[in-house]
Specification:
Strand order of the largest sheet: 6-5-18-17-16-7-8-15
Helix content: 25-40%
Largest sheet: 8 strands, mixed
Shape: globular
Distance between the termini: 13 Å
């Protein structure tokens, strides 16, 4: 880097010191016009002139004359015994937002679920919740869900539908016609038991498993080849000293990111353990996991298999063994110097090492299995006995496609899958299903697949239904409904039971199975009823595994055959279809919280884009927002480009989960459907494509990005240290901090005296992965509105909390640091001195408070805020659908247009905690009050408490050597302490 290049930078334009960017950053409230709207001459009378002429009091009076929206209160006619108005009820359950099945606590107010929080008692997720799980409560109130069963698109009764489906299935069995039940790979044990009953009742039926992302399917198939079992292992990152990840975004989207995040950060707690794991990441695109890595190496998609082969060869040499089938991959040298060092570190750790792979290339997963077997880590960092066993007899979706094309199938039933959208040949499915006699779907809406079938039996959401899950062998989670079904829907398990003639509710079927199969393994002295009641209350039980069998033996003879079919094709440019942390496979695309959550790496919202390396962008003349046509698999998509640092020059990244057409008013037509660019060869879907075509067009489509419109003004807002330097000096990388965050000794402020509590926060940058679960948690807790794509483009996002992402190093291979940013609740708050109506004031407990009834929207406070965390509410963001209003938290006021908003450190939770302690006649305990961002964080990066309590976590962290506060030179005295990020790079002292 040159002397003029900043060490940390937010965007390539900021790194280059683009004057236009700096000028734009100065105009904090720029009036950007929508695309296609011509600019007009500015009005000669500005808003500031208006205040000069009319006077502030007149302006305040005019604002006060506007009536706030009328809120009508409807009293209980007969109050339920278990409901006390104003008090929350909590239910333990299991999250259904993805296949990880994390344990959650569901908060209800007056019968309305309004918040998802983590279940601390769950041994796998341990209190963490991802952004997708947090947003699942909003999906409950989705107005575009199906409200009744339908036949041929026409409303029908459940009785008529059940009769027609049952008779149709029996007729097909009598004729010997095949019946196919298409399912996701992961269902709960009780749901799987219902599937078994279905298969037994209809002998011609078989299961077909569909995986939209190809993630679990490839891992399981690789273990079937190398170990004889179709399973996904239990990975233990907390036991690993050295981690080698080849494209596996295990902190973001891979397998079980909440559980892995907690494990990962525990293994990297340098302050507590004085040691931390070493993390290597080799990947084509910058992922959330790669951003946290100690050593990150960009590799092309086609180089993942050769890189793994090179690693396996080196490990085999150290073990004195040979691995057949590697030769054709070793002709291509990929990152040879890196692999030499990596192999040495892995071998030194042996059983404490872990190799994971995120590729959907079967050979890559097989090589990862070989590497782990050579390291001998079974039972330590990898466990097949504790993993997730998948359906051994299931057909693949490719096999079903062949049957459909041959017109051999009599019935197809879809549950929990949407292949018409998420399969590269989804468009062809419409024509193929026309030749099937009986088609059924149980999705929660008439989505792309359900709209093609004749019978639609809409399913409950996970918040309305019973169920269970087994995220780890022997760990069983219960799912219970926290609200009666909002519509005339029915659980899919109950539908399957109905169609096989079992007149039993889902609850009765679940309870009976637990009594027969789970209770005998629980090893408890009580009867079943007390056991069941406690299981429902806790939400999870740990039981003895079904058998204590040893891990299956490794089959070395199968490796060569598995590697023989690997593709070696490469091209000038290679497409990678990936999942975003928020939207995943697009099942929740109609959720505005997820659409508007900034991607932790690109900071973009609302839609997908083509990620291009800086060097490739220069070569092709591509700039941010320029529309690029990408061709693969005979299809072409036109998408805007985003120049993304850390991308391999040959790699082009495009997110899946967008381009929905039948999901709802929020998600329809947002972005492009990337699934169509995946290849489908020999029944196998590949989400990487070599030799893609790229055509740059003159069109431009602005991206809705956050953070990039702010300016650091050359300040070091994030600080880092290398592990060796930190162990030698706890203040390493933080030497410039002014005495643990203290400001100048001289001040015009008289100071504040805190005789009671003094609330504060500490954020550990080493633990923070940038997952943004806290952002969505804050949005749910504080009734923060969704502003939409157009307003996001105008830089008018309303999030009270953001995750700032900073790069360091060269654009093609930078390092990344994430920094959660919220109101700093400054001692000498600059916003308080400039507010002409005292709408922002300081409390006796150290909180910077916002009084909305006083605020007239001058925005002086936002101009004076050095950390730019205040948000101006431009519009009344109405909740037009009555259902959507049910998600609002009654403890937090819904703001109207024209006022400033910002983080309150969840003052409503503070007051609730203080009131509870007062009722019980005691002091508030440390850790008893938790902010929304804190409770959701899987990494435990956020700490909150009383700074006046010397024994509190936040007080201890504020005094540590890693502690610093933002902009100390301004003497604002923030109440938020940051802890320097520590990396285990092995490169010696930090700069």
């Amino acid at each position: 880097m040159s002397e003029t290049t900043p060490k940390y930078w937010q965007s390539l334009a900021a790194r280059a010191g683009d004057p236009a960017l700096l000028e734009k950053a100065r105009d904090e409230f720029a009036e950007e016009l929508p695309v296609g709207v011509a600019a007009q001459a500015p009005d000669q009378s500005s808003r500031r002139d208006f205040f000069k002429v009319m006077g502030l009091s007149a302006a305040a009076a005019m604002v006060a004359c506007q009536r706030a929206p009328v809120q009508k209160a409807v009293p209980f006619i007969a109050r339920p015994d278990e409901v006390t108005p104003g008090l929350a009820l909590w239910y333990a359950s299991t999250c259904g937002a993805c296949s990880a099945n994390c344990g959650v606590l569901l908060k209800t107010r007056d019968g309305r679920p309004i918040k998802v929080e983590g279940n601390e008692d769950h041994p796998v997720s341990r209190g963490g919740v991802c952004a997708t799980g947090q947003a699942s409560v909003l999906s409950l109130y989705d107005a575009n869900r199906s409200r009744w069963p339908s036949v041929g698109g026409t409303k029908a009764s459940w009785g008529d539908l059940d009769k027609a489906v049952t008779e149709g299935l029996r007729k097909l069995v009598g004729e010997g016609k095949p019946i196919r039940l298409v399912l996701p790979w992961v269902l709960g044990p009780t749901a799987e038991a219902a599937v078994v009953r279905f298969l037994a009742a209809f002998p011609t039926a078989r299961t077909v498993r569909f995986d939209a992302t190809g993630e679990l399917e490839t891992i399981a198939e690789a273990h079937r080849l190398t170990h004889g079992v179709r399973a996904v292992p239990d990975y233990r990152f907390d036991q690993a000293k050295v981690i080698a990840s080849f494209g596996a975004d295990f902190l973001g989207t891979w397998v079980s990111p909440v559980a892995f995040t907690r494990q990962y950060t525990e293994a990297r707690d340098a302050a507590g353990k004085k040691e931390m794991s070493r993390h290597w990441q080799l990947e084509p695109l910058m992922t959330l996991t790669g951003a946290s890595a100690d050593k990150r190496v960009p590799v092309a998609p086609s180089d993942v298999v050769p890189a793994l082969a090179g690693l396996v060869r080196r490990l085999a040499e150290k073990a004195g063994r040979t691995v057949e089938g590697l030769e054709r991959f070793l002709t291509k040298q990929v990152a040879a110097d890196v692999l030499e060092v990596l192999a040495g570190e892995l071998w030194a750790a042996r059983a404490k090492a872990l190799v994971v792979c995120g590729s959907d290339e079967l050979a890559a997963q097989v090589l990862a299995n070989v590497a782990n077997e050579l390291l001998g880590n079974e039972g330590t960092t990898v466990s097949l006995t504790g993993g997730l066993a998948l359906d051994a007899g299931a057909m693949t979706f490719g096999e079903l496609f062949s049957e459909l094309e041959a017109k051999q199938v009599g019935a197809v039933l879809f549950h929990g899958v949407n292949p018409a959208y998420a399969h590269p040949r989804g468009e062809a499915l419409a024509g193929l299903l026309k030749d099937v006699a009986l088609t059924v779907a149980t999705s929660d809406r008439l989505d792309e697949t359900a709209s093609l079938v004749r019978f639609h039996a809409p399913d409950h959401t996970s918040l309305e239904s019973w169920g269970d899950a087994e995220p780890r062998r022997g760990v069983l989670s219960l799912r219970q409904p926290v609200v009666a079904p909002l519509h005339d829907t029915r659980g899919a398990v109950e539908s399957l039971l109905k169609w096989v003639g079992v007149e039993q509710s889902h609850y009765d079927f679940l309870r009976a199975r637990w009594e027969a199969e789970v209770f005998p393994r629980a090893n408890v002295a009580t009867g079943f009823q007390p056991f069941w009641d406690e299981a429902v209350r806790q939400g999870v039980v740990v039981v003895l595994p079904p058998s204590a069998s040893e891990a299956p033996a490794f089959r070395a003879e199968s490796v060569a055959a598995a590697l023989a079919g690997a593709s070696s094709a490469e091209g000038e440019y290679e497409l990678v279809l990936y999942q975003k942390v928020a939207l995943r496979d697009g099942a929740l695309a109609n959720n505005g919280w997820l659409q508007e959550m900034p991607d932790p790496i690109s900071k973009a919202t609302w839609g997908n884009y083509l990620c291009v390396a800086p060097s490739t962008a220069t070569k092709l003349g591509i700039s941010d927002g320029q529309v690029v046509k990408v061709s693969a698999g005979g299809k072409t998509l036109a998408v805007p480009a985003l120049v993304q640092p850390g991308t391999h020059p040959r790699a082009l990244g495009l997110a899946m989960g967008y381009g929905r057409t039948k999901v709802g008013r929020i998600g329809n037509e947002v972005g492009e459907n990337a699934f169509g660019l995946a290849s489908f060869t020999n029944g196998k879907v590949r989400r990487t494509a070599p030799g893609v075509g790229v055509q740059v067009t003159p069109e431009h489509q602005p991206l809705a990005q956050s953070q990039t419109h702010a300016s650091m003004e050359g300040r070091a807002l994030v600080r880092e240290a290398e592990l060796a330097a930190f162990l030698a000096n706890p203040r390493a990388g933080n030497e410039e901090a002014g005495g643990h965050g203290g400001g100048h000794p001289l001040s015009i402020w008289s100071g504040h005296e805190y005789k009671g509590h003094r609330w504060a926060m500490a954020v550990d940058l080493s633990a923070c992965t940038g997952c943004s679960a806290c952002v969505v948690s804050c949005q749910a807790e504080n009734n923060i509105p969704i502003v939409g794509e157009d307003e996001a483009r105008r830089q008018r996002e309303m999030h009270w909390m953001r995750i700032d992402r900073y790069y360091e190093g060269e654009p093609d291979a930078p390092r990344v640091v994430h920094q959660p940013m919220m109101c700093q609740h400054c001692e000498n708050a600059p916003c308080e001195t400039v507010c002409p109506v005292l709408a922002t004031v300081h409390s006796t407990e150290g909180l910077n408070q916002q009084v909305y009834n006083r605020c007239v929207g001058t925005r002086y406070c936002a101009n004076n805020c050095p950390t730019k965390v205040r948000r101006f509410n431009w519009f009344d963001y109405k909740h037009d659908e009555p259902l959507e209003r049910m998600v609002l938290n009654p403890d937090v006021v819904v703001r109207t247009r024209g006022v400033m908003e910002k983080c309150s450190l969840c003052v409503q939770r503070i007051q609730e905690g203080k009131a509870s302690a007062k009722r019980e006649g005691r002091e508030v305990r440390d850790g008893e009050i938790r902010t929304a961002c804190q409770q959701s964080c899987p990494a435990r990066a956020i700490h909150f408490g009383d700074l006046n309590d010397p024994n509190s976590d936040v007080a201890k962290l504020a005094k540590s050597g890693r502690a610093y506060r933002l902009l100390e030179e301004l003497n604002i005295g923030p109440a938020v302490t940051y802890l320097t990020k520590v990396r285990n790079t092995g490169d010696g002292s930090a700069e």
